[in-house]
Amino acid sequence: MSAVRAAARLSVAPMMEWTTPHCRFFHRLLTRHALLYTEMVTAPAVVHGDRKRLLGYSPEEHPVALQLGGSDPVLLAEAVRIACGFGYDEINLNVGCPSDRVQNGSFGACLMREPELVARCVEAMAVASNAQGGPEITVKCRIGVDDQVPAVALRDFIATVSGAGVSRFAVHARMAWLQGLSPKENRTIPPLDYDLVRQVRAENPSLHISLNGGIDTIDAVVAHLDDGFDGVMIGRAAYHDPVRMLGQVDQRVFGAPARNINARDIIEAMVEYAARSDAPVKAIGRHMLGMFGGQHGAKIWRRTLSETMHLPEAGPHTLINAYEAMNRRAVVHA
Question: Which position has the higher pLDDT, 299 or 330?
């Protein structure tokens, strides 16, 4: 099994405006083994835009996958050719996002209706990657959209796209209702159908299928893996409560020795990262607000950081100041 396939046993989903390089660097301090994904980047942006800004990342983030959006095989192939120069461990095609912007660009979840087009896209992407000695091409999808019958749509999609050479899928176990629901509502309102994805996994033993959607505890991750899934992809739970969701991953999911996740060490590592980054500390600190979720003093940490990281004088020291404020309050109330 390749290293990236092993890492895909637990991955953190691509999330627009959330899984930025700053977020991924932070998450990597919590787990050495999980696969991290970028935000979705559109193929036209890669081809015509600021490539270093769009595709750059810290080497510490490995294993890290790039997610591309698009529906033009030529543009996607060119984007893959460019991305190969950045050394990503995987390149993923988005067939799951239901946002209006994505729909207007005729890609994302609406491509569930066009598996033959997706097949052409991934074939072109694979040719481009192979020519550069690049990474595997994978797909993230839904179980269907709008009036599709999920049991039919997902099976047809998997059969067609795997026939084009894709052997790894991450499946969000919800329909996407492109008419009538917002992207936020599409993350929670359509019911989850883990059983369907489990059946499709059993019917395709040669494929690597990760389950995504509504998984918010490590116990649930382990249960799904024990139930036969090759991997589990977690999303907002990893972002909003990162230490609880990612701090046990290496031990419980990957069988690595237990680590003592020391909060002070993590914050100091983020201070060093912020000091060498060109980004304002607010762009880094916002990803750390949930670091102490459920712990004594968490509200002090969130409030102090929220109130100070936007100030003109804010800098890397702001992270340490918020941590010390939390600890001072904890001592006073002990």
Answer: 299
Examine the residue annotation and report whether 84 is marked as an active-site residue of this protein. no
Q: Are residues 91 and 198 in the same domain?
A: yes
Among the listed residues 97, 110, 121, 141, the single catalytic one is 97
Residue 180: exposure state from Cβ atoms within 10 A (0-12, 13-18, ≥19): exposed
Q: Taking a C-beta distance cutoff of 8 angstroms, is the pair 3, 63 a contact? A: yes
93 and 168 share one domain: yes
Report how far apart, in Å, the C-alpha atoms of 227 and of each of 117, 147, 200, 257 are: 32, 29, 13, 24
- Are 62 and 188 part of one and the same domain? yes
**Long-range CB contacts for residues 23-27, cutoff 8 Å, separation at least 24:** 23/239, 23/287, 24/57, 24/58, 24/61, 24/64, 25/58, 25/60, 25/61, 25/270, 25/273, 26/242, 26/266, 26/270, 26/284, 26/287, 26/288, 27/238, 27/242, 27/246
Q: Are residues 178 and 314 in the same domain?
A: no
Backbone angles phi, psi at 214, to 5 degrees: 70, 15
pLDDT digits (tens, 9 = 90+) for 141-157: 999 999 999 999 999 99
> Which residue segment(s) compose the domain that 136 sits in?
3-252
**Which residue shows structure tokens 């060093």?**
272
